[in-house]
Fold this sequence. Notes:
By secondary structure, this protein is an alpha/beta fold. It is 34% helix and 16% strand. The protein has one domain: Ribonucleoside hydrolase-like (Inosine-uridine Nucleoside N-ribohydrolase, Chain A, Alpha-Beta Complex). The longest helix is centred in the first third of the chain and has 16 residues, at 69-84. The termini are far apart. The relative contact order is 0.16.
Amino acid sequence: MSIFPVLSQQKLLQRLAHPQRKIRMVLDTDTYNEIDDQFAVIYAMKSPESMTVEAFYAAPFFNDLSTGPKDGMEKSYDELKRIASIVPEMEGVPIYRGSESYLLEAGAPVESEAARNLVERAMAAPDDDPLYVVAIGAITNVASAILMEPRIIEKIVVVWLGGHALHWRDTTEFNLAQDLHASRTILDSGVPLVLIPCGGVASHLSTTLSEINDYVRETGPIGEYLYETFKNCHPNHFGYSRVIWDISTIAFLNNEEWTPSTLVHSPVLSSDFRWSVDRNRHFIRCVEHIHRDSVFKDLFRKLDSNIN
């Protein structure tokens, strides 16, 4: 069983504060699973004033778009390569394959290029300049890296889109529920964690094909790619909107005022995917709300400098 280092209360709270500066980050993404990851990848690359993306990690996923976690990871890897071919800012940024399965049991990491690279990159980070690990899929790669080398807890801050709001009746959400052992590892390990819930928080980030057509489509190859991706996600866009969940993580790093948050004790995750509270546990930061219009205005302006 892994023994995790315990950060002092002072250091933990420092890491949980908004960085208020440009940060170094890696982005862990199940890019082929949905249409929101693509927006998040591009939003991150278009936010150089706030972040430097050092690497991308392909995360596993399993739904009707894949035959299993390995296939989902490989499709996400291929989608990242596809995005890199149309986003000039991604040139030279490495892309790593992630886990081919979920954690089979508690405390048992899954070896992968992504997990090994995260350990190496995190351990090289200066003590006063932690690496931000932005995760927008199942948290398997990140949990595996922590289990492989627990000392990275002292070197990283995790920003994860996972679960539902803490007051919801359950937290059976795709990112969190795919890998119970990995999700518990992140919540239990004491790693500095900014949690952005899906239902009740990121669910505010809804948009329509009409809006994407007006403000994204004509911004060049990137805009056309995002427009086509959005258009193809549903057969009929009459009265239809779609949540672009994953840009919430990038929005948090761009401007904390768009993503109001608070410190809470890390919730306990039950085996039937419910939250409970133990006030003896360490703190995490939990986003409570997202100002939808501010986030989309920022994204649209970064895609098209002619938008005022």
